[in-house]
């Protein structure tokens, strides 16, 4: 299956993608721009699931490093992802994109719980479904949440929007000779510990044959470009 023939995708954005030039939190103008990327992709007829991290607000590991109980800190991280999901929902709806947020930690005053069949219907009706709170358990990340939702929603691919345009053999910000891979196998990513997503997320994608497409979300219009098969990206598959 080529990128251009995908019908349903899961887009994973890190929480940092919502920070803009800031060091922390949510920059409304940046969230609006990200929402515009999602709208442009949806306008091509795609069904879109969205997972947003929480690292712009709180990461469990950072809390644990300061002496907090790890599980407790992870729950705080999961709550951060719900805030990001609500911010994105608001921005998408301002652009006229219908959305639903489904959280793995039930919060019935603010969003739906994760119900796969319901999410399925939302997608069929043209709504973007934003899955919040990762897998709903500590010691995981939103990468794993993204892989899990991509599998259960039968997405054709997991697109990971980052600050670089793919996966390199060295850090392209530090090494001018770094070379970008067009494609990689899941096993190579895991063996070489390449920074694509965390290992449990990569393994889940491998076991369910979900391609991972790593691309830059920084340039305007890039998500739609990549989805049309014209952008620059690294695709991880079998
Ligand atoms: N988290 C968790 N379980 C999950 C998803 C997230 O415990 O299933 C917590 C974890 O503490 C993590 C934080 O939520 O550090 C924010 O998620 P993540 O680090 O994946 O965000 P990103 O790096 O994508 O912004």
From TrEMBL:
Entries under InterPro entries matching the protein: AceGlu_kinase-like_sf (IPR036393), Asp/Glu/Uridylate_kinase (IPR001048), Uridylate_kinase (IPR011817), Uridylate_kinase_bac (IPR015963)
Task: Cite the Aspartate/glutamate/uridylate kinase domain residue spans from the record.
Answer: 8-216
Location(s), subcellular:
Cytoplasm
Question: What Gene3D superfamilies does the record tag this protein with?
Answer: Acetylglutamate kinase-like (3.40.1160.10)
According to the UniProt record, what class of enzyme is this? transferase
Q: One Pfam family, please name it.
A: AA_kinase
Q: How is its activity regulated?
A: Inhibited by UTP.
Keyword Cell membrane listed? The answer is: no
Say which family it is in. Belongs to the UMP kinase family.
Give the protein name, as stated in the record.
Answer: Uridylate kinase
Higher taxonomy: Bacteria, Pseudomonadati, Pseudomonadota, Alphaproteobacteria, Sphingomonadales
């Amino acid at each position: 299956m080529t990128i251009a023939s995908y019908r349903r995708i899961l887009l994973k954005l890190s929480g940092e993608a919502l920070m803009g030039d800031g060091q922390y939190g949510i920059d409304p103008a940046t969230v609006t721009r990200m929402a515009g990327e999602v709208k442009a992709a949806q306008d091509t007829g795609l069904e879109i699931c969205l997972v947003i991290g929480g690292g712009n607000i709180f990461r469990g590991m950072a809390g644990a490093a300061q002496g907090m109980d790890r599980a407790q800190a992870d729950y705080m991280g999961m709550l951060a992802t719900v805030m990001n999901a609500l911010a994105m929902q608001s921005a998408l709806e301002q652009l006229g994109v219908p959305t639903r947020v489904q959280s793995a930690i039930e919060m019935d005053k603010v969003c739906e719980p994760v119900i796969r069949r319901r999410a399925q219907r939302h997608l069929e009706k043209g709504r973007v479904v934003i899955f919040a709170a990762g897998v709903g358990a500590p010691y995981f990340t939103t990468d794993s949440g993204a892989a899990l939702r991509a599998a259960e929603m039968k997405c054709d691919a997991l697109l990971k929007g980052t600050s670089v345009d793919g996966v390199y053999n060295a850090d392209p910000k530090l090494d001018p000779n770094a070379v970008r891979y067009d494609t990689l196998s899941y096993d190579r990513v895991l063996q070489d510990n390449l920074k694509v997503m965390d290992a449990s997320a990569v393994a889940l994608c491998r076991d369910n044959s979900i391609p991972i497409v790593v691309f830059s979300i920084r340039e305007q219009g890039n998500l739609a470009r990549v989805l049309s098969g014209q952008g620059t990206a690294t695709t991880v598959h079998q």
